[in-house]
């Protein structure tokens, strides 16, 4: 039996399908849509109803670069093998019939600490310029929708660019 597509894409597809048929005006309504879209889909919100953080962002990149090396040219390799006998390296091949190359992963004279965690990254939020850009783009899209509606009177109090009075 052949499986086509990707299960992750299928999950997003189910969310998209239900979202198109739903009235969604808040984050909690969107979370309900995700939850109802499929048995395997469930929302994971950064903040809950009480505005408490439900999970944290960790600075994994700087933490891992202290202990591990980059695999140079990783995109040209297609076969990877890890060995319990040599835990400090990965064995790579460009093709299945090509020669295996040992690539070191752990930096020299480095002991990987498994008892520490990386630093927590605090979300920065939107910059004022970016927030203003989102407002402008959203307003332009609302104006387009309003001007396409027949025989309607529309005014947006906050901006005169979108006034329509038939």
Description of the molecule:
It is a single chain. About 5% of the residues have low confidence. A hairpin with a 7-residue loop joins strand 3 and strand 4. The longest helix has 21 residues. It contains 4 helices and 5 strands; from the N terminus they run H-H-E-H-E-E-E-E-H. Strands 2-3-4 form a 3-stranded antiparallel β-sheet, with no helix packed on it. A two-stranded antiparallel sheet has the order 1-5. The protein is extended and about 60 Å long. Helix 1 crosses helix 2. Helices cover 31% and strands 10% of the residues. The protein has 3 domains: 55 residues, no CATH class; 65 residues, no CATH class; 43 residues, no CATH class. The relative contact order is 0.09. With 166 residues, it is an alpha+beta fold.
Looking at this protein, list some descriptive labels.
166 residues; alpha+beta; 3 domains; 3-stranded antiparallel β-sheet; two-stranded antiparallel ribbon; extended
Any chance you could write out the topology, listing elements then pairs?
Blueprint: H1 7-20, H2 27-37, E1 57-58, H3 60-65, E2 79-82, E3 89-93, E4 101-104, E5 120-121, H4 128-148
Antiparallel strand pairs: 1-5, 2-3, 3-4
Count the beta strands: 5
Largest sheet: 3 strands, antiparallel
- Write out the strand line-up for the largest beta sheet, numbering strands in chain order: 2-3-4
Number of helix segments? 4
Average per-residue pLDDT, rounded, comes to: 79
Question: What radius of gyration results from the CA coordinates?
Answer: 25 Å
Indicate the structural class: alpha+beta
Number of domains: 3
The backbone outline, from C-alpha atoms, is extended
- Strand proportion, as a percent range, falls in 5-15%
Distance between the termini: 60 Å
Report the order of strands and helices: HHEHEEEEH
Question: Can you tell me the residue ranges where pLDDT is under 50 for at least 5 consecutive residues?
Answer: 151-159
Helix % is 25-40%
């Amino acid at each position: 039996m052949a499986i086509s597509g990707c299960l992750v894409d299928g999950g997003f597809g189910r969310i998209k399908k239900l979202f198109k048929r739903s009235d969604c005006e808040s984050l909690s309504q969107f979370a309900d849509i995700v939850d109802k879209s499929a048995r395997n889909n469930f929302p994971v919100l950064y903040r809950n109803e009480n505005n408490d953080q439900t999970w944290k962002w960790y600075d994994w990149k700087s933490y891992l670069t202290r202990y591990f090396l980059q695999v140079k040219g990783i995109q040209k390799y297609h076969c990877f093998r890890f060995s319990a006998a040599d835990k400090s390296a990965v064995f790579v091949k460009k093709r299945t019939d090509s020669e295996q190359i040992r690539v070191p992963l752990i930096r020299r004279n480095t002991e990987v600490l498994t008892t520490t965690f990386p630093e927590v990254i605090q979300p920065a939020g939107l910059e004022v310029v970016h927030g203003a850009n989102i407002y402008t783009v959203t307003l332009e899209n609302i104006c387009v929708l309003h001007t396409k509606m027949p025989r309607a009177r529309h005014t947006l109090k906050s901006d005169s660019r979108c006034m329509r009075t038939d």
